[in-house]
Amino acid sequence: MATFAKIFKMNSIKSSSNSIFGAFGPAFKGLWISLRTERNVQLHFLAVAFVVILGFLLNISSLEWLTILLFFGLVLGLELLNTAIEKLSDLVQPEKDDRIGIIKDTSASAVLWASIMALIAGIIIFIPRIVQIFSNNQ
Questions:
Q1: Quick check: 128 and 56 in contact, CB under 8 A?
Q2: pLDDT 10s per residue in the chain (138 long)?
Q3: What is the pTM of this model?
Q4: What DSSP state is assigned to residue 130?
Q5: What is the C-alpha separation between 37 and 45, in angstroms, rounded?
Q6: Domains, the chain, ranges and CATH?
Q7: What region does 15 belong to: left with phi over 0, alpha with psi -120 to 50, or beta?
Q8: How many angstroms separate the CA atoms of 118 and 54, rounded?
Q9: Are 34 and 26 in contact (CB under 8 A)?
Q10: What number of other Cβ atoms are within 10 A of residue 71's Cβ?
Q11: H and E: helices and strands count for the chain
Q12: Distance CA 14, CA 11 (A)
């Protein structure tokens, strides 16, 4: 099993750039890699696109946009963390290990919980508007 010091090579960590903007390079790279390779990240981005379109079509309020944006950040952030935890777990312990399974399941459950809360918020925000549109058309 790899040790913490070997995995992170604490003495060799250097900034990729002296500028504040250069420091964001690895973060954007990680986001791009996750978006290209991780199915769940892709699904969350599709959900974001759908909700943004729906938000514009239904003319939601500023407070509703704020709520939706907070949930976007929470769910996508947790999904990216979950992906990192899964990748790190596989690196540290490639063989099947029940302890690693619990770690992976727990991190996945954080994404699930945030997604359920986001869905409930979406229902509260969008369903009344959709019902109103259909009731006005009859």
A1: no
A2: 555 555 555 444 455 556 777 888 999 999 999 999 999 999 999 999 999 999 999 999 999 999 999 999 999 999 999 999 999 999 999 999 999 999 999 999 999 999 999 999 999 999 999 999 999 877
A3: 0.80
A4: H
A5: 13
A6: 18-136 (1.10.287.3610)
A7: beta
A8: 15
A9: no
A10: 20
A11: 5, 0
A12: 9
The one-letter code for the residue type at 47 is A
Amino acid at 18: N
**Tokens describing residue 8:** 């992170």
Q: Which amino acid makes up residue 97?
A: D
In angstroms, what CA-CA distances link 108 with 81, 103, 114?
9, 9, 10
- Amino acid sitting at position 62: S
How far, in Å, CA of 52 to CA of 85, rounded? 28
